[in-house]
Structure formats: C-alpha cells, structure tokens
Design goal:
This protein has about 190 residues and is mainly beta. Helices cover about 10% and strands about 35% of the residues. Strands 1-2-12-11-10-7 form a six-stranded antiparallel β-sheet, with no helix packed on it.
C-alpha cells in the first residue's frame, strides 16, 4: 500500500509540473556569496548585493531567474541580467553584453502605483557607467559632504524572453553603514 501511494504521489507531482519557463524569481533558499534575495510573500522580492567597495575590480552578476551567477565572458554569456560593482550597475545589453536586456524609468510615482511597463523610452548600456547612470542616474552624490541619496526613480526591466519587471533601487549601504551594497525591490509585471 505504501509503495502504491508513493507512486501515486510521484505521478501527481509530475503531472502537476509545468513546462512554463516564465520567471518566478530566483531560488531564494540558496543565496549566493555576494547576492541575497528574499521573497516578500506579496509578489515582490528584495535583493541586496555586496558589490564591493570603491576599489572593486570585478562585477558581481545577477539573473532574475537564478540569483547570483558566475560569468566568465560577459560579452558572450547570456545567463546574467545585471552586473554590480560598487555603485555601478550594468545590463546584459548594449555595450556591456549581448543578451538584449533593456531598462526604462519613470520619476514621480510610487512603486505600488506602477502596474505596467512603458511602451517607449527603453535603452541599454552605452558606456562603462551603465544604463542606470542615465539622466541623473539612480542616486545623487554630493562631493562636498560625501552624502549619497537615492532618487526614488522606478526602473523597468525588459528581459530577452519578453518578461517585464519593475524595480526600485532602495539601498546603498549595509547595516553598519558601509557603502557598496545596492539593494532593490522588484516585481514581475
């Protein structure tokens, strides 16, 4: 009887599985060495990246489906969506990669109020600073006071598989106040 139930449950599990490859978020039970993503339980995720300090030389790579990923050649590999190094964020599109990741943004709205992606205004990296520094970027830095302030911009991400996401970069430092820890909340649209 136990063997029959085990086979029946196994068959039901296989039947219940889907061939759908749509994004459901990274495996939050297996954080990477430099990236941790938390499922907020409401359809949103929070990701924090240890992107190194000002002297960081290597990017930390992130995939919305896999979390932290290893990348040997960012110009040819398509397993990553963003790369992080201190406060620089690059996309796997444009001058930084060939996967076709694009971003857009909107100012003056809250994350909760955004329900769909824009139809225009999409762009990818055009130089080594990355797309997230376009038009004032995702933060403002005051060189006199050394204060860095987030600008509250809502970003949109268009992935090569057609998925759209919204995100808000909402963190710059770790709990001790050390810079180089960009964080963001994101949701699939």
């Amino acid at each position: 009887m136990k063997k029959t139930l085990f086979i029946l449950f196994g068959l039901l599990a296989v039947i219940g599985c889907s061939e759908d490859d749509s994004i459901t978020g990274p495996d939050v039970t297996d954080p990477g060495e430099h990236i941790e993503t938390v499922d907020n339980g409401d359809g949103t995720y929070t990701t924090i990246v240890d992107a190194g300090f000002m002297d960081a030389t290597e990017f930390v790579y992130f995939s919305f489906t896999e979390g932290e990923v290893e990348v040997t050649d960012p110009m040819t590999e398509t397993n990553w969506d963003f790369g992080f190094k201190f406060y620089t964020i690059i996309t796997n599109g444009g001058t930084s990669g060939t996967a076709g990741v694009e971003v857009a943004y909107v100012d003056g709205v809250s994350f909760a109020d955004v329900t769909e992606a824009p139809t225009e205004g999409w762009f990818a990296d055009e130089d080594e600073d990355g797309a997230f520094k376009a038009d004032g970027g995702w933060y403002t830095y005051n060189p006199q006071s050394h204060e860095t302030v987030l600008n509250g911009r809502i970003w949109f991400v268009h992935l090569p598989d057609g998925t759209y996401l919204k995100m808000e970069l909402n963190n710059l430092v770790d709990d001790a106040g050390t810079p180089g820890f960009p964080g963001f909340v994101w949701e699939i649209l």
